[in-house]
């Protein structure tokens, strides 16, 4: 199986909004990095939520690693596909940075020592050591974003979706993030990255996909 994610002839309309996709198809391949661009409101975030099963297509089918998302729980999709939200505070729920990183794995019964070692590694990579005992919602915007990415990587997803990952990061942090993504790419983790940052796109793209948006009400 070569396709990690397939969208087959999907249509989507928000219950109280407009049609965002009309008979849209897309294949994302194993190990490949696709950059998704398109103007504000063209449907980039909606597309990622359809892949994650957070939204269900009105028509058509979404498949993740060969399985239709209609028959998968949000939890099992989330184990295969790591998703970093456009607004990272929406995915932070713990009372400390360390707990944010370790809770999901400890909850599943993973070994405590190994989980702590992995968390320490993430704190180091994402330069969060100084705030490891802080309350996540009080972090700076850049710190929240780095924490959201780190906590998704803790789970060890096979594919990664990043919605505007460089927003609110300074150049040094973007470089650090780029190095992490390069490492993931080396171990064949495919990625869908929504970005408007030209240098970042150039560095990571295998393919660029520009969403046009549906043009009628
Ligand atoms: N919950 C919602 N209910 C109704 N309409 C929505 C909802 N969320 C998004 N939309 C609409 O769907 C369209 C696509 O939105 P989406 O957030 O996917 O765009 P985007 O490409 O991610 O934009 P941006 O670049 O601003 O992040 C927009 O017209 C938006 O107004
Ligand atoms: Mg968006």
Question: How would you describe what is shown here?
Answer:
With 217 residues, the chain is an alpha/beta fold. The chain is built from 7 helices and 9 strands, in the order βββαββαβαααβαβαβ. The strands form 2 sheets. Strands 6-7-8-3-9 form a 5-stranded parallel β-sheet, sandwiched between helices. Strands 2-1-4-5 form a 4-stranded antiparallel β-sheet, covered by helices on one side. The longest helix has 16 residues. The mean pLDDT is 93. The structure holds adenosine-5'-triphosphate and magnesium ion. The site of magnesium ion has 4 residues, from α1.
In brief:
The protein has 217 residues and is of the alpha/beta class. The chain has helices spanning 44-52, 74-80, 97-107, 112-125, 141-154, 171-186, 198-204; strands at 3-13, 19-29, 33-37, 59-64, 67-68, 81-84, 159-163, 190-194, 207-210. It has one domain: P-loop containing nucleotide triphosphate hydrolases (Rossmann fold), CATH 3.40.50.
CATH hierarchy: architecture: 3-Layer(aba) Sandwich
What overall geometry do the principal axes of the alpha carbons give? globular
Q: How many whole angstroms does the radius of gyration measure?
A: 17 Å
List the helices and strands in order. Answer: EEEHEEHEHHHEHEHE
Could you say which small molecules are bound to this protein? adenosine-5'-triphosphate, magnesium ion
Number of strands: 9
Coarse structural class: alpha/beta
The number of domains? 1
Estimated share of beta-strand residues? 15-25%
Counting DSSP H or I runs of 4 or more residues, the number of helices is 7
What integer is the average pLDDT?
93
